[in-house]
Amino acid sequence: MHDPFFFGYGSLVNRATHVYAPAHRARLRGWRRAWRHTALRDGPFLTAVPCPESEIEGLIAPVPGADWAALDRREAGYNRHPLDTGLTVETVNGVFTQIYAVPAASMHDTGGPILLSYLDVVLQGYLIEFGAGGVRRFMDTTDGWDTPVLNDRTLPRYPRHQRLSAEETEMVDHELARLGVTVIEG
């Protein structure tokens, strides 16, 4: 029996944040990312939203023993959706894969800022997996950059934060400036 897979498109792209292996680079047509607020936390969730014209990159990784409980706890606030079409994986084919997305009914328009410590983790993962072009594509295929970003690098609030090199930090700061994202000091 083969383990099912999940498609990660945010912090799960950063292999340092999880133990799900082996992970494989993948592309998913028909979805894009968005920052969305819910009542479940002060800051926004990064979620996937259906969009027929879009394609996003990410990783797929197995759920050992088909035991979704631990991953569901990590992804609390999201629902799982099977991916029937649109998934292209570099090294494996024909695996049952699901994606996590925030339910539309729980989304609302206001809330706190995006944590820079979280965005750092995400973009570090994209840089490692897909290079500088992958970072730019992440930024360009994600909606909600009108939400300010809280600079919490000195005292990271994101529980799986990672240390960035000077070059990685510069890359994140450059991409935020390129899109005109407001960064507020924590």
Brief characterization of the structure:
The protein is of the alpha/beta class. It has helices spanning 69-74, 116-140, 166-178, and strands at residues 5-8, 24-38, 45-62, 79-82, 87-89, 97-101, 107-108, 114-115, 142-143, 149-151, 183-185.
SSE arrangement:
Blueprint: E1 5-8, E2 24-38, E3 45-62, H1 69-74, E4 79-82, E5 87-89, E6 97-101, E7 107-108, E8 114-115, H2 116-140, E9 142-143, E10 149-151, H3 166-178, E11 183-185
Parallel strand pairs: 1-6, 2-9, 8-10, 10-11
Antiparallel strand pairs: 1-3, 2-3, 2-5, 2-7, 4-6
Helix pairs in contact: 2-3
Could you characterize what this model shows?
With 186 residues, the protein is an alpha/beta fold. It has one domain (5-185): Hypothetical upf0131 protein ytfp, CATH 3.10.490. The chain is 24% helix and 33% strand. The protein has three helices and eleven strands. The protein has helices at residues 69-74, 116-140, 166-178, and strands at 5-8, 24-38, 45-62, 79-82, 87-89, 97-101, 107-108, 114-115, 142-143, 149-151, 183-185. The strands form two sheets. Strands 1, 2, 3, 4, 5, 6, 7 and 9 form an eight-stranded mixed beta sheet that branches. Strands 8-10-11 form a three-stranded parallel beta sheet. Strand 10, helix 3 and strand 11 (183-185) form a beta-alpha-beta unit. Helix 2 (116-140) crosses helix 3. It is globular and about 45 Å long. The chain starts with a strand and ends with a strand. The model has no long low-confidence stretch (mean pLDDT 91).
